[in-house]
Amino acid sequence: MPISLSGAGRFYITTARFLAFAFSLSLAPLYPLSASELPMGAMDETPEVSEVLVRKEERRLYLLSGDQVVRSYRIGLGDNPSGHKLYEGDKRTPEGKYVLDWRNSNSDFYKSIHISYPNAEDREQASAWGLDPGGSIMIHGLPNEAGDMAFAFLGLDWTDGCIAVSNEEMDEIWQLVADGTPIRIVP
């Protein structure tokens, strides 16, 4: 014999089902997984990366294939992350459109990929202030001498203006992003 529920009973069951569904959605990642969260073999299925997007306020770096986010990483920025880089030594990470133009496997940090900062506009702006715009802005891993203290860098703004990820994530970015890939850095 079927059980008949009162209006309040149906409300509580409906609410419980909704909350269970909402909770299950909260367990799914909002963005694709980073290197440390990927199942083995997932790299074989990754589409070609057409652009790198950095959202400074979110502290996220995204690898894009067209409009699709294929990877997402938590990043560390310069010690003074707000605003566009104006001159060498201001410890800001630049904002704008650049290109990832070369890489260094023997840098002072665990691998590095160079960002084509400064562009003509950056040089002009710094020159108007009588300043040097600087350069050597990179995406890189942790300091080579970090050793057992590597965990202390993750999630913090500690660079001189570069974009930092974990060494494992740098390996993945190194593999997925080709020289000549555009990078867009936004506030």
TrEMBL record:
GO terms for biological process: cell wall organization; peptidoglycan biosynthetic process; regulation of cell shape. Residues 50-186 form the L,D-TPase catalytic domain. Pathway: Cell wall biogenesis; peptidoglycan biosynthesis. The lineage of its organism: Bacteria, Pseudomonadati, Pseudomonadota, Gammaproteobacteria, Pseudomonadales. Belongs to the YkuD family. Gene3D superfamilies: L,D-transpeptidase catalytic domain-like. The active site is at residues 140, 162. This is L,D-TPase catalytic domain-containing protein. PANTHER family: L,D-TRANSPEPTIDASE YAFK-RELATED, LD-TRANSPEPTIDASE.
